Amino acid sequence: MTEPAPHMTPEQFRQHGHEVVDWIADYWSRIESFPVRSQVSPGEVRAALPPAAPERGEPVSAILADLDRVVLPGLTHWQHPGFFGYFPANTSGPSVLGDLVSAGLGVQGMSWVTSPAATELEQHVMDWFADLLGLPAAFRSTGAGGGVIQDSSSGANLVALLAALHRASRGGTVRHGVEPDRATVYVSAETHSSMEKAVRIAGLGSDAVRIVEVDENLAMRPEALAARLERDVARGYTPVLVCATVGTTSTTAVDPLAQLGPICQRYGVWLHVDAAYAGVSAVVPELRPLQDGVEWADSYTTDAHKWLLTGFDATLFWVADRAALTGALGILPEYLRNAVTDAGTVVDYRDWQIELGRRFRALKLWFVVRWYGAEGLRAHIRGHVALAQELAAWAEADERFDVVMPHPLSLVCLRPRWADGVDADVATMTLLERLDDGGQVFLTHTTVNGSAVLRVAIGSPATTRAHVERLWALLRENHDWLATDFAAAAAEREAARAAAAAVLQGPAPS
């Protein structure tokens, strides 16, 4: 007779749980000793793993040892205070503890009846955050709209598009699918690529995307949007959705919601606001003007898992009218029927997302807001914005760098200056490689008006003014080293050309 698998007992879990928490706490305390970006070569992590799964179970101590030996060298440390690369992927002690409780409870919150607290806590926390961010009353669960925690803003962009298609077709897409040759979606060149991916997934195809021109600050031009909408309507197309961005990924450009909103209403187009990175900044009242006009939005997304101390995945997504969302995504097989669902007295979040199943994500968000309070969340955002403004001021006062584009939040884009005759893009990318290879900091790049620039995204909870000062020193030191190297190479080339010219001229006459 086969013996059942030896499950971890509650007492064993208690013992090993302490070991794991200790390991995480030790990791946080020593994170600055690691190079920010992983330095392994492709295939190196897999080569350190056994070719086959273990036949017999192993102790937790062996697993933790391999975390140190195999996993840590293969990580880029997103919580490192020298991480200035992509937008942050914050986590925090309260978030990890909330996730641990969620994992321990192991509930599946797809419907109200499958765990009422999982739904109602989420509704309540989302209403809290609608208040904290100053979002319109239509987004509260007490009205026609409401909020839900999605897996990512990419997923939120997709469900917003599906809801918009449902509304534009008056429910027709549920019955016969989309009309890919008639529906149109409006973005700018700065809109996140996930919206075009959503268009593809929804079955419209990339030809449905209209790219609206931007102004000198890379914000969508309202008059250009109006002209495109007018032209498409005249040609028989059905405009479905406009995606406006608050804080683009490349440069944190901000589309003018207050001007775009009335245009969308005039043409009956769904206005979706993608504020994945920047939206949470609205917990700070003085930063809310960046989102003036948000009351025009039909849907809105921002990521608590980027800049608000909550571990991935925790995308906050609201709609002003949930009927379009649930109309697009709701489906009720017999085995999910129950009295409260049939009565329509509860929210079943399975109808607000792509997936059927859902984790109890609201717990970690609840832990975070309970631990920090609104005051602590505001201080977190304000601190990073202040550091970014200080860095920008240093760069503006330095002849070696230009600050590119407005920087109202915690991203600063820098264009290094190089001598005439130096390929500026090659030099800038070489500077980036030197910085990232050094291990103390990690930056990324983008292009603005066709030129390479460095992105400095401040957002790690552990980053202090000292870390930003160190980054600034590294930028200047490496710039100077490269500039000297380029000058020496240019002098060598000039000397070689002069010598070659002298040989061609021959010896001087005696």
Automatic annotation (TrEMBL):
SUPFAM superfamilies noted in UniProt: PLP-dependent transferases (SSF53383)
Source species, domain of life: Bacteria
Key words of the record: Decarboxylase, Lyase, Pyridoxal phosphate
Signal sequence extent: none
Cofactor: pyridoxal 5'-phosphate
Family: Belongs to the group II decarboxylase family.
Name this polypeptide is given: Pyridoxal-dependent decarboxylase
